[in-house]
Amino acid sequence: MIFVTGGAGFIGSNFILDYLVPGRDERLLNIDKLTYAGNPYNLAGIANDSRYLFSQTDICDETAIAALFAQHRPRAILHFAAESHVDRSIASPDEFIRTNVNGTFNLLEAARRYWNALQGEERDAFRFLHVSTDEVYGTLGPQDAPFSETTPYAPNSPYSASKAASDHLVRAYHHTYGLPTLTTNCSNNYGPYHFPEKLIPLVISNAVEGKPLPIYGDGMQVRDWLYVGDHCTAIREVLAKGKPGETYNIGGWNEKPNLEVVHTLCDILDQLKPKAAGSYRDQITFVKDRPGHDRRYAIDARKIERELGWKPVETFESGIRKTVEWYLANPQWVANVRSGGYLTWIEQQYGAQAVANPA
Ligand code: NAD
Ligand code: DAU
């Protein structure tokens, strides 16, 4: 049995769907509170799979988490659950501290107690895999080398500060108690089931609905994009072969300025779903910048390739086309998610021009 926290979110859903392939007989318990970002509909296809269990539980709930450990006796916990959206962390950081810091602490404590009582092979094999982000390293200048595992932490947003705090707790639990932890720091993911408050799914969804495509500031901020399936493969490799106490950077070697990403999305949409007149690029709207906006992220992913033999399979070109095709093929998924009130929230943060219909 393995535990996955946050399995109803974007990356967690993709991980579970990839993990439960035919022939793998291990059971998996998805522990998810189902916040606005948790969507059980992502996992509807495996809801009746006997290997899949779900518990709607808050990772901050000490009693409930301890009971799940005692009942299911996992060999590993893969910790994805988090508040994940930088803009939301700027507007209201409280929940980020609660879930990302206190929630991770609660899981570490529960895991430590459980692991302390294990013996022999069960104890040796246990792993706590903490899924984290490249944003803990702060921001890069145009000529700086990509983030490596030894880059000092310099988080700039409440989100990245909360993730940095959780990474430090994980590190401390290995160093102090010997808990067999693994930490991964990954760059920006994209792909199916990505909540359309994040740049790529927001632009695809807004484009086909004839809405503005909001670009923060000058649009020249750089992100290092990785197809979500490649992130999931990397996590499986780290779980299987990673050395306890180590951290692994995961990235796609795909640095792109935001404006270029949005142009690419518009060009693919122009091919796959042409407008009656003009290009989707006509919907691009420059809006005010994100406060404290990090200028550039880039990941040096050589350690995980050298030590664990992992490297990404998708290029940006192949992954982004697959992603647009998935959103066009799944309008019902988008409609379900979009019926929420998050557009109002974006309007409050970035002004009416970010959501107003230009037509
Ligand atoms: P997401 O926001 O799509 O999903 C988060 C999930 O966690 C949701 O299902 C939500 O219901 C659940 N959750 C939130 N608070 C919870 C709580 N208190 N108890 C239980 N469940 C709770 O996030 P994501 O994009 O899938 O990211 C997953 C993890 O990967 C996060 O830890 C994030 O920091 C990290 N990460 C994300 C990216 C990215 O590009 N999305 C890149 C690197 C690292
Ligand atoms: O780097 C990894 C991180 O990537 C993860 O840890 C986070 O959980 C994940 O949300 C993501 O953070 P970003 O802030 O980089 O992703 P987001 O999609 O919000 O924004 C990507 C870039 O696009 C960023 O420079 C801000 C910009 N942007 C975003 C939105 C939503 C826009 O210009 N317009 C937008 O409407």
Shape: globular
CATH topology: Rossmann fold
Radius of gyration: 20 Å
In CATH terms, the superfamily is NAD(P)-binding Rossmann-like Domain
* Ligands (ions, cofactors included): nicotinamide-adenine-dinucleotide, 2'deoxy-thymidine-5'-diphospho-alpha-D-glucose
Helix segment count?
A: 13
pLDDT < 50 stretches: none
Structural category is: alpha/beta
The major beta sheet can be summarized as: 7 strands, parallel
- Give the averaged pLDDT, no decimals: 94
Approximate strand percentage:
5-15%
CATH class: Alpha Beta
User: How are the strands of the biggest sheet laid out side by side?
Assistant: 3-2-1-4-5-6-11
CATH architecture: 3-Layer(aba) Sandwich
Instruction: Compute the separation of the termini in Å.
Output: 52 Å
Number of domains: 1
Which percent bin holds the helix content? 40-55%
Descriptive overview:
With 359 residues, the chain is of the alpha/beta class. The chain has one domain (2-257, 290-350): Rossmann fold (3-Layer(aba) Sandwich), CATH 3.40.50. 43% of the residues lie in helices and 15% in strands. The chain contains 13 helices and 13 strands. The protein has helices at 10-19, 62-72, 86-91, 94-116, 120-125, 158-177, 199-208, 228-241, 258-272, 302-308, 316-329, 331-338, 342-350, and strands at residues 2-5, 28-32, 52-56, 76-79, 127-133, 181-186, 189-190, 213-216, 222-224, 226-227, 247-250, 255-257, 284-287. Strands 3-2-1-4-5-6-11 form a seven-stranded parallel β-sheet, with helices on both faces. Strands 7-10 form a two-stranded parallel sheet. It has a two-stranded parallel sheet with strand order 8-13. Strand 1 (2-5), helix 1 (10-19) and strand 2 (28-32) form a beta-alpha-beta unit. Helix 2 runs parallel beside helix 4, helix 7 (199-208) packs parallel to helix 9 (258-272) and helix 9 packs across helix 11. The radius of gyration is 20 Å and the shape is globular. The N and C termini lie far apart (52 Å). The mean pLDDT is 94. Residues 84-86, 133-135, 187-188, 198-199, 202, 214-216, 221, 223, 258, 290, 297 line the site of 2'deoxy-thymidine-5'-diphospho-alpha-D-glucose (DAU).
